[in-house]
Amino acid sequence: MIISYITGIIISYLIGAIPFGYLIAVAKGIDIRTQGSGNIGATNVGRVLGRKYGLIIFILDMLKGLAVVFFVPTAVSSVVNILTTTDLPVLYDSTQTGNLLVIICGFCAVLGHAFPVYLKFKGGKAVATSFGVFIWLAPISIAIAFGVWLLTVIVTRYVSLGSIIGALSLVVAIVVVVNSPFVDNAYLTAMSVAIAILIIVKHTSNIQRIIARTEKKVFSKKES
Prior knowledge:
The protein is mainly alpha-helical. The chain has one domain (2-212). The chain contains ten helices and no strands. The longest helix is centred in the N-terminal third of the chain and has 34 residues, at 51-84. It starts with a helix and ends in a 12-residue tail after the last helix.
């Protein structure tokens, strides 16, 4: 079982660390790290290359989070099970034991995106990849959080503020919607809190610009 966790952590991190924003920008002849805010995420890519590319990056970053929780735990456990010929716990059910490997893999994918080894640990702000992870782990809760994100962006036109409030609303939604959030699904709740903190920390500079009223707004003519 330890081998499953170690292998799952490494593979999930490396997949999560794939810098799609950077790679697509390079294919267009641009180092996205030197343009706009310097971030490799969908929002900055959209501002520099156009909204179409921002949407493409969001989808790709989301899919790598979804792919990790959907495929990696099953694949890793299957291989280890064959090699060790021992029975492993169910990968995903309503118990802490069943959820743990999936949750660890999902969290490592998010960490990989935020701190990619390929780019000297300077990555995105973890929103899209987290979205993909929770589509599988807590679909109703992430749908609620997405609604909050969308409403915040429409009202304020700040994508960053929407991301922060959306992350916090995800924690609340999981506590309210998920069965037994502090017992059977305690790991899921803990991960949502950890990711919310990570997203807020990664948006520190955005928070400072919002307070100073210098943060760029989505759909603004001043976007570059």
